[in-house]
């Protein structure tokens, strides 16, 4: 069975999600404001509060206040409301220089960056035709009270930030989705969308990348950091293919969690990697970035290792540098490359439709009442965000906990 066939067979109606409401959902989830809900905010006398991250100590943050720039023709000012914090955000910071993540929201201060996050913001001032005060957008934001953007390519779906400094950066991160016109949006699922949508997009496209390449001649996929959201999202997408053997490697403390997910046929602690059959053709998908573990995998599987896919890490903050490993050279995976390929192959509308169906299934499984995969932990304000960042940078966090921050 192909990935797309499995997703089609198992898809369900987004309407069912939107109508599934609980008594407690209003407490932790937002709602779309009406465009006429409030008057434009007077920004002239306001300051913008930012949470800055040390580029040399990712767990160390500092509050900074700057004057709010006036809104000019074509600009929109958005008030950041809620966002997720995961180890993926630590990865953005870890590769901030190497992959230009710091460049999306420059600080003007040497040694300090703004850690990008995925979440929701409301328009509080607009001089951009087609964007009204009160509208809610999903996208890639700094941890800041306000953010000013230059709205370009405005459509019913949303807009792109066309600021000069972002034009050379990956366009997938410059797109902002209008919640009122997003078929995958449901206000009661905002927390899940902030936590998983960017990660699951990586998972979804990684699963497609592997299938698109015939799994590099292998039928066994070994994942490191199997308890991470992006890893088990990828395994979830591939689990519809019974011909694949999916093996998850994780720390001993997370072994039980990874096993309960049901995404992997086998879950092993890292020290048991060498119990796997070394002669079976294998793809290694590395989410841990652990150089010693990578060397162990290459030595153990040898010529049977057909591909080493490095999918990112919050542990190893260096780009791949090893050249003396036996077997294939580790290759860095970057989701936007596969997105561009599939946009060309199928068209953006078809890619979006397939992704939305897969995400709906995935969200439904995450919040399954009998065995939910994650509980939402709500943090408040910049102090709450700083505490979560320190925890994630130091210890990686609990895989069963999803951190959401509300700035209001």
Notes on the protein architecture:
With 408 residues, this protein is of the alpha/beta class. The protein is 30% helix and 25% strand. It has helices spanning 3-10, 14-19, 25-28, 87-94, 190-212, 229-238, 255-261, 291-301, 335-346, 348-366, 381-395; strands spanning 47-54, 61-67, 75-85, 112-113, 117-126, 136-141, 146-155, 158-161, 175-178, 220-223, 245-250, 266-269, 282-286, 305-310, 331-332, 375-380, 401-406. Helix 1 packs across helix 10. Mean pLDDT is 87; it is low at 1-38.
Which helices and strands occur, and which strands form pairs?
Blueprint: H1 3-10, H2 14-19, H3 25-28, E1 47-54, E2 61-67, E3 75-85, H4 87-94, E4 112-113, E5 117-126, E6 136-141, E7 146-155, E8 158-161, E9 175-178, H5 190-212, E10 220-223, H6 229-238, E11 245-250, H7 255-261, E12 266-269, E13 282-286, H8 291-301, E14 305-310, E15 331-332, H9 335-346, H10 348-366, E16 375-380, H11 381-395, E17 401-406
Parallel strand pairs: 10-11, 10-13, 11-12, 13-14, 14-15, 16-17
Antiparallel strand pairs: 1-2, 1-4, 3-5, 3-7, 3-17, 5-6, 6-9, 7-8, 8-9
Radius of gyration: 21 Å
Largest sheet: 6 strands, antiparallel, barrel
Q: Strands of the largest sheet, in order across it? A: 3-5-6-9-8-7
Stretches where pLDDT is under 50 for at least 5 consecutive residues are 1-38
Q: Give the mean pLDDT.
A: 87
Q: How many individual β-strands?
A: 17
Helix and strand composition category:
alpha/beta
Q: Roughly how many Å apart are the termini?
A: 47 Å
Strand content: 15-25%
Question: What is the helix/strand order?
Answer: HHHEEEHEEEEEEHEHEHEEHEEHHEHE
Label the overall shape: globular
Number of helices: 11
Helix proportion range: 25-40%
């Amino acid at each position: 069975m192909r990935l797309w066939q499995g997703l089609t067979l198992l898809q369900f109606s987004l309407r069912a999600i939107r109508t599934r409401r609980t008594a407690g959902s209003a407490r932790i989830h937002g709602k779309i404001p009406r465009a006429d809900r409030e008057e434009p905010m007077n920004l002239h006398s306001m300051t913008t509060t930012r949470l800055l991250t040390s580029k040399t100590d990712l767990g160390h943050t500092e509050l900074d206040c700057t004057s709010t720039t006036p809104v000019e023709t074509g600009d929109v000012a958005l008030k950041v409301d809620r966002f997720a914090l995961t180890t993926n955000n630590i990865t953005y910071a870890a590769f901030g220089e190497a992959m230009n993540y710091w460049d999306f929201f420059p600080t003007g201060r040497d040694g300090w960056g703004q850690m990008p996050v995925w979440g929701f913001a409301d328009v509080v001032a607009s001089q951009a035709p087609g964007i009204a005060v009160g509208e809610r957008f999903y996208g890639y934001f700094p941890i800041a009270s306000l953010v000013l953007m230059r709205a370009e390519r405005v459509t019913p779906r949303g807009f792109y930030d066309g600021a000069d400094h972002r034009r050379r950066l990956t366009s997938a991160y410059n797109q902002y989705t209008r919640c009122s016109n997003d078929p995958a949006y449901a206000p009661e699922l905002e927390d899940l969308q902030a936590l998983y949508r960017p990660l699951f997009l990586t998972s979804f496209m990684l699963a497609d990348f592997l299938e698109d390449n015939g799994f590099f001649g292998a039928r066994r996929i070994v994942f490191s950091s199997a308890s991470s959201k992006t890893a088990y999202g990828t395994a979830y997408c591939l689990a519809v293919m019974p011909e694949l053997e999916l093996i998850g490697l994780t720390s001993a403390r997370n072994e039980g969690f990874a096993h309960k997910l049901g995404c992997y046929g086998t879950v092993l602690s890292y020290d048991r990697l060498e119990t796997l059959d070394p002669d079976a053709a294998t793809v290694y998908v590395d989410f841990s970035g652990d150089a010693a573990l990578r060397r162990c995998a290459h030595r153990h599987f040898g010529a049977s290792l057909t591909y080493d896919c490095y999918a990112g890490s919050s542990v190893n903050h260096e780009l791949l540098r090893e050249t003396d490993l036996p077997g294939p050279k580790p290759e860095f995976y970057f989701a936007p490359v596969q997105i561009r390929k599939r946009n060309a192959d199928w068209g953006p509308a078809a890619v979006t439709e397939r992704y939305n169906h897969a995400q709906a299934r995935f969200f439904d499984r995450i919040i399954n009442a009998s065995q939910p995969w994650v509980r939402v932990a709500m943090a408040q304000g910049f102090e709450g965000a700083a505490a979560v960042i320190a925890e994630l940078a130091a210890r990686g966090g609990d895989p069963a906990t999803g951190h959401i921050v509300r700035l209001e």
